[in-house]
Amino acid sequence: MSVTTPAAPPQRLLSLDVFRGLTICLMIIVNNGTGHGFAQLEHAEWNGCTLTDLVFPFFLFITGVSLTFSFSSRIGSTSTAENSRLSQLPHIFRRAAIIFAIGLLINAYPHYSLALWRIPGVLQRIALCYLAASILYLWTGSRTRFAIIAALLVGYWILLRYVPVPGFGIPTVNIPLLDHDRNLATWLDRKLFSVHLFDHGRDPEGLLSTLPAIATTLFGVAIGEWIRPLRANPARLLRRIIAFGLACLIAAALWSLSFPFNKKLWTSSYVLLTAGLAMLALAACYWLFDVMRLRSRWTIIPVVFGTNCIFAYALSEFVAIFSVSVKFTMDGSRIDLKDAFNSFTFDNIPHHQWASFAYSLFFLTGCWFVTWLLYRRKIFLKI
User: Fold this and answer.
1) Which residues contact 139 (CB under 8 A, 6 or more apart)?
2) Among residues 180, 223, 244, 260, which is most buried (max CB within 10 A)?
3) How sure is the predictor about 5, in pLDDT bands with cuts at 50, 70 and 90?
């Protein structure tokens, strides 16, 4: 990871920075409540989808959009020779490896116990999706990538719907479809990772469910490919993105009747739902900030996070883990730093949901201030 102080690239998409920054804001908010928050600021317990469940797929979608701009500036035109694309492989693998490693460090902090070290994770999934999407972007065309998206979504549905789960039987025949513990994705994670998982033998970022997550990233690649040649014709670009987004939402609604939305298993209907909503959200940001050229002081809030997103996320995770790892005795009871702080501040707010939200905003403000210090000095941590 290097520290650079580059000038802003010409014709940078402000909408992309704002959208990415808003996603990071929401990610920090939903990850740092007090456990008694509003329903939409919590993950759906199993099937279903809340506002919180949109955060991670939105970030993967943005990753796909961004990499089209990154590689376009690196390799030039589409007629670039094969060796120019090959020259990008060290960068791709290096970046994916660093992101994966940061995720592992976050998972193990602060004890770093090899016996229970969680292997899957948010940054690990981002790394794998970035790796796959980058290689597919450089070596396949748009039609091939759409075919791959279809294959990933349909193939994943077939695996979870029809393939017998060893020791349990066939979904919908011997066991319920998308059963909490008796589904193919969870079974495979247990076989591969044993105890190195998030939740007693289950993991929301498991290996098999990374396949449809790659499809989420490839949807972003498709939109990124449309943006670059159509920026001179924003009306046509917006119509195309909105139409595609609505089509994804319709397909998601229909598919969910037999294959429900499920973030923890990253079901195919969930991919279509979140990709469609991400397209509409990006279209709104693009119209406001790159077509209408809306500028206001508040945009500095998401832009600061959007230009240093990995740093902001890692900072929030390390601070959050630290706050519950430091324990001391107060009034005869063992209590962690987070609870001790809240007992003097936000716990005094009468309603638990508002108390949790107030703490989340306080935490977000602290992370933003640290990230802003880097932004103010034009320090951007590039991986």
Assistant:
1) 85
2) 223
3) very low
Confirm if 371 and 25 have CB atoms less than 8 A apart: no
The half-sphere exposure of 209 on its side-chain side, counting CA atoms within 13 A, is: 27
Amino acid at 239: R
Average pLDDT, the chain: 90
18: left (phi over 0), alpha (psi -120 to 50) or beta: alpha
CA 278 to chain CA centroid, nearest Å: 11
- How far is 9 from 27, CA to CA, in rounded Å? 26
d(CA 304, CA 282): 18
Tell me the β-bridge partners of 334.
Answer: 329
pLDDT-based confidence at residue 3 (cuts at 50, 70, 90): very low
Burial class (CB in 10 A: 0-12, 13-18, 19+), 10: exposed
Task: Give the global pTM.
Answer: 0.92
pLDDT of residue 212: 98
Per the CB < 8 A criterion, the answer to whether 221 and 245 are in contact is: no
- Spell out the domain ranges in the chain: 1-42+297-383, 47-294
261, 273 Cβ separation under 8 angstroms: yes
d(CA 26, CA 55): 7
The distance of Cα 51 from the centroid of its chain, to the nearest Å, equals 13
Residues 6+ apart with CB under 8 A from 65: 16, 220, 221, 223, 224, 227, 282
Q: How far apart are the first and last CA of the chain?
A: 5
Contact between residue 212 and residue 268 where contact means Cβ atoms under 8 Å apart: yes
Q: Mind giving me the DSSP string for 40-86?
A: GGS--SSSB--SGGGHHHHHHHHHHHHHHHHHHHHH-STT--HHHHH
Q: Which one, of 97, 92, 100, lies nearest residue 119 by Cα?
A: 100
The two three-digit tokens of residue 143, written as one number: 């039609």
